[in-house]
Structures are given as C-alpha cells and as structure tokens.
Amino acid sequence: MPCPRCDTELALDLAGEPDPVCPACGLALLPARTATCPRRLAAACIDALVVAAVAVPIQRLLGLLVDPAPLLTPPRTPLGALLGLVTLPVGPTVVRAAPTLLVLYTYLVLHWAGTGRTVGGRLLGVGVVDRWGRPPGPGRTLVRAAAHALGGTAGLLGWVFAAFEVERRAFHDKIAGTWVVRSGA
C-alpha cells in the first residue's frame, strides 16, 4: 500500500510496528486490518439476499409482461442440466439478467460511494476504503464496480485472487485502488 501523503510504497513489516510511520515523509500511519475472505463472502451473501428481495419481484413482473421464450429445455439427466447451463446463449442470458444486474450494481455503487459499507458490510464490520481510509467516492466506485463485473465474468477469478494476495485485495480492489477492511460494526 502506498503512503497517503507521498506515494512511497510501504513495506508490509510496518504493520507489525507499535507506531508505524512512513519512512520517506514521517507521516504517522493508522492501523487497518483487511477483511478475511470468509467475512467478505458472508457479507456478499447477505447483500445477495437484499438484492434478491428487490430484483426477484422486478424480474418476475418483467417476465409476466414480456413472456420470453425459455432459455433451457427440460433436461433428461443431471448431466444434461449442467451442459444446458454451460451452453446457454450469451445474448439472451444477459438480456434476462440485465434487471437483476442493474439492481445489484446500483445497490453496490450507492453503498460503496456513500458510506463504503453495504448492508452485509455493516452487519459484519466490513467496509471499502481508499488509500486515505475514506469511502471510495463515486468515480473510484464506478471503476471498482466495472472491475467487479469483469472479475465475475472471468469465472470468479477476480474474487478468488483475494484469497491468495498478501493484502487480501481482489482484482477489482487492485484496479480501483481500494481495500476491504474491518471496521466497527
């Protein structure tokens, strides 16, 4: 992580010092604990329930109004069901998912830009911050949301990245210059 004042890249061993300061400019550094992957996943599950409570009724209503053709035919075997999901046409699938994705990303952007914490984040004491420890703001949040979507479409690899990265930052955190940290619940 860079120093908020002078941009000098800080060594990880500074986190173990009792009163860490930037070696280049002498700025006193505030301690921050990054959120663990299980805690982030649990917050995301809570957020998914909140989004589903809004998106599912909208999706049902649109389905009644438009009456789209089914994407899948009834499978004869479990393997057939799995293969049917893998071979879904991308265009119609994205069109079907668009209302839910719109609700999801509106929810995330508004919460991240406003307070840095979604409902799941508030319940589990997790928040998104920029390098100064503040909520990321609208511009950085839009970049994070776009990278979040990109990491999700790449087989969730953008999120898995956080489990193996030393600062526990996912792909979208690296791109947007954000950290997911533990905060007061």
Question: What this model shows, in words?
Answer:
- It contains seven helices and two strands.
- With 185 residues, it is mostly helical.
- It folds into two domains: 1-31, no CATH class; 38-182, no CATH class.
- Helix 1 (37-66) crosses helix 3 (90-114) and helix 3 runs antiparallel to helix 5.
- The radius of gyration is 20 Å and the shape is elongated.
> Could you give the order of strands across the largest sheet?
1-2
Counting DSSP H or I runs of 4 or more residues, the number of helices is: 7
Structural class: mainly alpha
The span between the termini is: 24 Å
Series of H and E elements:
HHHHEHHHE
Average pLDDT figure: 85
Number of strands: 2
Please describe the topology of this protein.
Elements: H1 37-66, H2 78-86, H3 90-114, H4 119-124, E1 126-129, H5 137-153, H6 157-164, H7 171-176, E2 179-182
Antiparallel strand pairs: 1-2
Compose a concise summary of this entry.
By secondary structure, this protein is mainly alpha-helical.
